Write a sequence for this structure.
């Protein structure tokens, strides 16, 4: 799902990072958001809605809506569309409202 | 119709074309800008003052077919990619078009491609003569294609064979 | 508490130009930017801009961001851009509260403020519009042009305004198929040169069409569209199905300016400017002296006018702070002329009507 050749842009990707999505090992790049890295790996469902547990993906990609909130390193309600990926991150689908342990 | 589909009618297209006599003399710009929008880089780009918009930048560009030498500097400068160069001086049977093409992979000289009309429908074969992509064009390559003269007023784009 | 001379909220085209303009008059400027990179929406615009040389016409938006940031750098410490910093409150004593990252929260007191907060994308109501795969057109642009990630393989674009047709063209440049662009309006809203670019690539633009429903279990699988009559009511029997994995919603923007409302600036709903906007003078100053607005936060327009407004607001805000350059009046008139030129044509009818209503 990554664009390698583009007529206008060149994409300079940072160093490769390892992270997990629901326990599964994944790779992304430094400088990209969690949501972008997941999308590049084909993951579109990021959360489940609070009432009906319907699947949720990102929507605005600029931190306005709450559609992309996930549990990151145990912390809920992280806006993954504007949060940069870091080495070793544990990213999990969030089901409904976030709970503080 | 144009405002519903984005496809200009033959009548509209004809108003933008220079005379056949002019086309047969050598390259000349066809500026397919039909709507008054605030924009004037074509006027700024033209080295011989052949494209005039005037003080109100909303005016529709007026190209003087006698002043225009078909140099093509405006082709890559028009933000709407609305300009092409036509040249009927090379042969009585064909016309050369120079059109902007911002897609990859670029075609290669000598390649035969599918000629498309203003609605993107295939209408003819076209032969790629040249692909220009200098830094001054700022990533808007300009492709020269040879097309059967019968498609002078219909040819507007191309796609590579699958 | 940190005190600054001029605080600019937002580092998009309006905010950056305001900063450059104010700093060139001698003001000290702090720019707040909520993202981790400056430039606002410019950084994902791969197409050449309209307008004239004064607004960098014929340059690509992404390159204009570079040009403006280079100018910002030339002012050294007279302009500071604080990234990852969201303005979350704006109070009577000109205190702006800032959330930096997720954990730092502090106050900034400003002598003068320019609100250049931009806009947000509207959404559209239809069954299953919450399925993953249905994204704002701007969001897809970010994913594709900032991160180099494809949103999917086959896209249906909803909305034939400038953003809709421009993003459709950009999707094709990224090698993604666009099956159609639809719009409920009977006419294409975009500049027609943009629409023609798309039409000659073979993408049908379907006016008087809307989305009836989206289909899919976990993600979008298909969209059912139908024609609408002249009162936007669906016409039964006109349904068409498109098998797509992405639907982009591009049904317009609304000004993002709640901070000004919170500060107590007089606001008014102006349909021609696409939402609530602050009342302001021709110099972009609101009813509260020293509080200015520029760009889409003052009404939805093009980036070219956002830049001109930014330059004007920066000049006038700095002047109010005592930094009056010798050529103040010439510069002010030049910016006003630029704005007038950009708005004087038929595509500016709506804007001019809106400006009249929102003028103090």
């Amino acid at each position: 799902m990554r664009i390698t050749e583009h007529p206008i842009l060149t994409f300079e990707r940072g160093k490769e990072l390892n992270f997990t999505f629901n326990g599964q090992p994944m790779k992304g790049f430094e400088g990209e958001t969690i949501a972008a890295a997941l999308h590049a790996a084909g993951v579109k469902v990021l959360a489940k809605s609070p009432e009906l547990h319907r699947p949720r993906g990102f929507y605005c990609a600029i931190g306005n809506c709450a559609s992309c909130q996930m549990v990151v390193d145990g912390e809920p309600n992280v806006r993954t569309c504007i949060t940069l990926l870091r080495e070793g991150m544990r990213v999990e689908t969030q089901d409904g409202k976030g709970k503080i342990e | 119709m144009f405002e519903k589909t984005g496809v200009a009618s033959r009548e509209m297209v004809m108003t933008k074309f220079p005379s056949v006599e002019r086309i047969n003399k050598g390259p000349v710009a066809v500026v397919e800008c039909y709507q008054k929008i605030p924009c004037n880089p074509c006027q700024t780009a033209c080295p011989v003052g052949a494209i005039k918009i005037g003080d109100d930048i909303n005016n529709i560009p007026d190209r003087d077919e006698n002043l225009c030498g078909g140099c093509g500097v405006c082709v890559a400068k028009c933000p709407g990619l609305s300009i092409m160069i036509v040249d009927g001086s090379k042969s009585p049977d064909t016309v050369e078009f120079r059109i902007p093409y911002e897609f990859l992979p670029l075609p290669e000289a000598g390649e035969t491609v599918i000629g498309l009309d203003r609605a993107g429908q295939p209408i003819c074969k076209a032969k790629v003569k040249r692909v220009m992509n200098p830094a001054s064009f700022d990533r808007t390559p300009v492709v020269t294609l040879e097309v059967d003269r019968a498609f002078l007023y219909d040819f507007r784009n191309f796609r590579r064979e699958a | 508490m940190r005190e600054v001379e001029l605080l600019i909220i937002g580092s998009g085209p309006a905010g950056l130009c305001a900063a450059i303009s104010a700093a060139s008059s001698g003001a000290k400027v702090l720019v707040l930017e909520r993202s981790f990179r400056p430039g606002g929406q410019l950084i994902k615009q791969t197409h050449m801009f309209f307008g004239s040389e004064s607004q960098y016409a014929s340059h690509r938006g992404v390159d204009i961001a570079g040009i403006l940031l280079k100018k910002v750098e030339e002012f050294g410490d007279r302009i500071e851009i604080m990234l990852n910093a969201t303005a979350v409150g704006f109070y009577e004593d000109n205190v702006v509260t800032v959330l930096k990252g997720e954990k730092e929260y502090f106050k900034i007191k400003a002598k003068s403020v320019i609100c250049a907060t931009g806009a947000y994308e509207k959404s559209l109501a239809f069954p299953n519009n919450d399925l993953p795969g249905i994204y704002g057109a701007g969001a897809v642009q970010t994913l594709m042009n900032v991160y180099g990630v494809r949103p999917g393989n086959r896209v249906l674009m909803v909305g034939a305004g400038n953003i809709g047709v421009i993003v459709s063209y950009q999707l094709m440049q990224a090698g993604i198929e666009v099956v159609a662009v639809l719009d409920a309006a009977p006419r294409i809203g975009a500049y027609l040169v943009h629409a023609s670019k798309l039409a000659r690539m073979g993408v049908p633009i379907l006016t008087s069409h809307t989305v009836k429903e989206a289909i899919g279990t976990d993600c979008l699988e298909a969209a059912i569209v139908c024609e609408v009559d002249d009162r936007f009511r669906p016409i039964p029997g006109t349904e068409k199905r498109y098998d797509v994995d992405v639907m982009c919603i591009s049904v317009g923007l609304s000004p993002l300016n709640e901070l000004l409302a919170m500060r107590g600036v007089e606001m008014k709903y102006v349909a021609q400017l696409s939402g609530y906007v602050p009342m302001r003078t021709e110099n972009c100053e609101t009813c509260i002296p020293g509080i200015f607005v520029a760009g889409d936060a003052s009404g939805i327009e093009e980036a070219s006018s956002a830049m001109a407004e930014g330059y004007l607001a920066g000049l006038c805000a700095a002047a109010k702070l005592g930094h009056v350059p010798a050529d103040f009046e010439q510069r002010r008139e030049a910016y006003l002329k630029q704005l007038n030129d950009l708005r004087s044509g038929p595509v500016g009818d709506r804007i001019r009507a809106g400006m009249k209503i929102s003028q103090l």
Q: What stands out?
A: Chain C has two domains: 2-120+253-357, 123-249. Chain C is about 30% helix and 25% strand. The CA atoms of residues 273 and 355 of chain C lie 8 Å apart. The longest helix of chain C spans residues 303-320.
